[in-house]
Task: structure prediction
Amino acid sequence: MHERLEVAFVFGTLGNLSGALGEGWSVEDHYAWAIGAESRLNLPLPGDATRYLLRFTVQPLVNAGLCDTQRLDIDTVSGLLASFSIDRRTTIELALPIEQTRDNRSIELILRHPDALRPSDFKQTDDRRLLSLCFMSGTLVRQLDDAREPPAETAPGCHLIVAGNHLARQMAEVMSALPILRQRVACHFVNTDQGRGAAPPPTEALQSAALCWEQSGGNNGAEWSGLRGMLPADCDVRRFAAPRMKALWPFLDADPRLVFEAGLYPGGRYPYGDRIGASLAYLQLPDDIMQLSYQSMTEKEMPDLDALFAADRAAWRQLDATHDVKVAEFIVENFRRYRLFFAPPDPTGDLLRHMIMQLVTGSPIEALCDPAKLRRELDFLLTGYLGRREELPIHPHVARRFGLAWWQPGMRYRWHSNHWTFEEHALRYIRWTPWRP
Amino acid sequence: MASVSRSILVYANCQGDELIKTGRFMPSLVGRIGFKWIPLHLVMPEDWGTRYGPDFMADVEVVWEQVEAGSPSEHRQELHRRLPPGCQVLRFPPYNALCLWPFAGNDPRLAADPTRYPWSDSVAAALATEDLSDDALFERYMEITTQRMPDLERRLRMDVTRWQAADALSDIRSATWVEHHFRDMKLFHTTGHLTAAPIAFMLRQLLERTAIVPRGELTRLRGEIDTLLRRHDGQDFESVPIHPLVAERLRLRFYDPSARYRWHSHEWTFREYILHYARWAPYLG
Result:
């Protein structure tokens, strides 16, 4: 037997139960106090033949020494349903008798609470209401004993191993979050970066994995080869690589100032170097002159962007030739219309979705769920996806040259919790300004 | 980071974490003054014998103590018992705003899953089981919330009264500043989570009154706070969108109806947030 939420009840004038409250209530915006010795509740029901559980979240009025618990009996016209003794905020649960709920559109509940107190009796207040329990919210839960949905305790339909680095981790997070795959696919991430030492998946998951998505081109440590050897012979192994785009950031280069700063910037203060910015770093110039210098040097030294893009395209095609996930055509066709990269190695939700769908299509996952629903869930899950929250600003000249439809002048880029324009980022980078994550 | 021999201890809710996170990145203070935080909402009795023992307290020269309404809790009393002699104590108020989210009531789903969407919306909760399309669900939400929108001016007055009451207990005052600015700039991501502006305001006030900070450095410190926080979003990891009618009724001049609000690894519009919330949809962390 398992359960499904049928109705969510919210007490209070801003909730949805006001019409169901009979005598014995004092209703406030977000809750309702049961007052006096008895309160009546005409609870709406769906009117079918299912068994229902009723839950209420309640807060008792207690005062040490005066009243440590509030008793609550819940009756119907046919007699007592349940009794509780409540000493703190809690969620109480009772099964509604099927003979009183079957085909009925409501059930009359009588709540008896004999321990009500007046707040004015034990603290400085004018509140003389006789209060017992504060009802906050509740649920009506349908109890199902059929097999239309897999119960929570069952083993998953298959194990999916996703091995690689950041991109693989993102994919594993997405697959683990899709509701349609819950209880159907157990997704296990394996960090293959040397020395990262993440806990490996359980042996039985590896030995029975139906699928493995393996990222290439990383820093694959020896540990992964050992784990990979445990996969069953019939495991559907699909390979993907992390595509990079360099043409949008033509001045990328290493910066000698980039050192490990313990406790401050685990990934480096400015991990993406800029050769023009770095060359200006040692000049003592006021901000406006520095920005003009950077602008003029970048315009003067702007590389051949078509050539850079051609090199990117060639690299993507090379990846396509050796991997199951194809990206070249998708990126070339779409990168002007949609943002596909936050930074050279970091895909946006659109590119991530494209890659995941290729890995899913034709795999055993499609046999375990409705593929159309899976696609809808994937779209919903990736709405407004921020990736690693590291957006590398794009030079306005580059954006205009490529005709990026999603770009606009003065655009702000997220760097963790900061929002900088291209110009602000450039100046901060040149000065190696500290920033707050 | 270099070890330091004098520390400022912040006894506060998560707003204290923002103060110390900023302080730790201020170049003039790195290696000279350390920051420690005791989260008043999370501290457990056993912590005083372990993580907040004598070693923790030994180098504390200043306490920035966030005030609370009511009589002092056991933990606050314990803190005061343990402070080194001569320690400077500066009291400051918490910031919070209930009027911006008038439907922050109860959601029964929180009982079983308290962290997925911790900033409840009781109207969206009541729609959770309705079998509606996205458009119909959002339309219904807007219809109900428009009908039930409470008197927001009254709620604002209640907030202001609370701000003033907290000020009365504090060495540093913020009520006037919040009341003066909350329509012009976004100050709150949730009822108790802040954008960078109030964090910067409070940090400046605290540093100006902190005895171990040399007076001659205050201008530079103010500049460093500005550099760190000018384009920072503060405690934005869960930013609950503001209802357009709330913005209208409270005359929030900063309000942008198409604004996107961060929710962990996402940025959603108000509509997207309500749909995700009502459906209790999973998201990426």
Q: What stands out?
A: Chain B has two domains: 7-96+170-229, 108-153+236-278. Chain B touches chain A through 48 residues (CB under 8 Å). The mean pLDDT of chain B is 96. Residues 127 and 149 of chain B are 16 Å apart (CA to CA).
